[in-house]
């Protein structure tokens, strides 16, 4: 390990990446060059990564911010290979998870309990690094390969800004830490940080994908007495019981009864609505209904992800059932097939297995 770091730190690294060159087409394993980290940046050796539905959304996107060629992936875990100037919070060899949500630690929002959206690095989807919006990846012809969500983890080595890096306890298995990089944290956080689910309360979850089931897990941890899953796939109920689901509703079987009856707080997660507007009558608002949006489930990455790691190590937080498949990096396109067919929650993609 020491010899490898001494021979690569400060130099470009040639490695394998799964590159998407055309929207919606299979990824191609290519040799690429990854530049050394600049100031405030960290180069990571990816141990494993997984496929999130947001990756699929942008993989299919033909117009900006869909840009190509691109290395997707933003849910991952790895070890620090080298660091750039001014990086003091992590060092070579540390186990880290990269995240699409930066936390600079200095801005008013990072120092407030009311927000997890860093105003030092406002959230936006653009193909480049946080500070200079350029890429650290080039293909064999020297042409730029675009970044994705500050991470680009479908690659053996990637460069991430230190504001998007979280050091985690090495006692956690890499594939479990990987889940906390996006999906599991988003869902658990939505129940914990945004909804503020209280002991004995009732929670309804619309859509039981990985994030929806993570919401159930978060509601269970918060002590909800009734957790209702709403999904078109009845098989999700048995799967969801592991995460605390107590009831299941199939919208196709509701007849004339509205699934959304009742007052309460509605939390919107994910990017799948593509910016589509929503409407709600003022009467519903007056009766007590509220709608709240959330990025990353309200999670403050550098402080809250280590808490979730500890809760997993203390056997409170369930992460293992999210992993439905494990494949090698060379088979990465199978992960897309499994997700599109609705057969997987999270498919772990191992770099060296």
Automatic annotation (TrEMBL):
Organism listed in the record: Acorus gramineus
Keyword NAD tagged: yes
Protein name: Alcohol dehydrogenase-like 7
Domain Alcohol dehydrogenase-like N-terminal: 41-168
Keyword field contains Zinc: yes
PANTHER family listed in its UniProt record: ALCOHOL DEHYDROGENASE, ALCOHOL DEHYDROGENASE-LIKE 2
Pfam families, A to Z: ADH_N (PF08240), ADH_zinc_N (PF00107)
This protein's GO CC annotations: cytosol
The family this protein is said to belong to: Belongs to the zinc-containing alcohol dehydrogenase family. Class-III subfamily.
One GO term of the biological process aspect: formaldehyde catabolic process
Alcohol dehydrogenase-like C-terminal domain span: 210-256
């Amino acid at each position: 390990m020491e010899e490898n770091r001494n021979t690569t730190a400060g130099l470009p690294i040639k490695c394998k990446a799964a590159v998407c060159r055309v929207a919606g087409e299979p990824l191609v394993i290519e040799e690429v060059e990854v530049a050394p980290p600049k100031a405030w940046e960290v180069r990571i050796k990816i141990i494993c990564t997984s496929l999130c539905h947001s990756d699929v959304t942008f993989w299919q996107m033909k117009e900006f911010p869909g840009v190509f060629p691109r290395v997707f992936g933003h849910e991952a875990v790895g070890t620090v290979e080298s660091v750039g100037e001014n990086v003091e919070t992590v060092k070579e060899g540390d186990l880290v998870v990269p995240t699409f949500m930066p936390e600079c630690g200095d801005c008013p929002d990072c120092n407030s309990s009311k927000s997890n959206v860093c105003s030092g690095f406002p959230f936006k989807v653009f193909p480049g690094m946080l500070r200079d919006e350029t890429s650290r990846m080039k293909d064999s012809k020297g042409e730029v390969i675009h970044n994705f969500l500050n991470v680009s983890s479908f690659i053996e080595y990637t460069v991430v800004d230190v504001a998007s890096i979280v050091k985690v306890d090495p006692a956690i298995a890499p594939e479990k830490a990987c889940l906390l990089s996006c999906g599991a944290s988003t869902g658990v956080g939505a129940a914990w940080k945004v909804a503020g689910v209280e002991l004995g309360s009732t929670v309804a979850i619309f859509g039981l994908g990985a994030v929806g089931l993570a919401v159930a897990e978060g509601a269970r941890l918060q002590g909800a007495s009734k957790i209702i899953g709403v999904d078109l796939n009845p098989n999700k109920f048995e799967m969801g019981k592991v995460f605390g689901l107590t009831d299941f509703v199939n919208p196709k079987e509701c007849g004339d009864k509205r699934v959304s009856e009742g007052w309460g707080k509605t939390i919107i997660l994910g990017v799948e609505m593509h910016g589509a507007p929503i409407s709600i009558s003022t009467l519903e608002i007056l009766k007590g209904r509220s709608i709240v949006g959330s990025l990353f489930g309200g999670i403050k990455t550098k402080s809250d992800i280590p808490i979730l790691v500890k809760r997993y190590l203390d056997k409170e937080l369930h992460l293992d059932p999210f992993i439905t498949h494990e494949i090698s990096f060379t088979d990465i396109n199978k992960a897309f097939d499994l997700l599109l067919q609705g057969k997987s929650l999270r498919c772990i993609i191992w770099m060296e297995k």
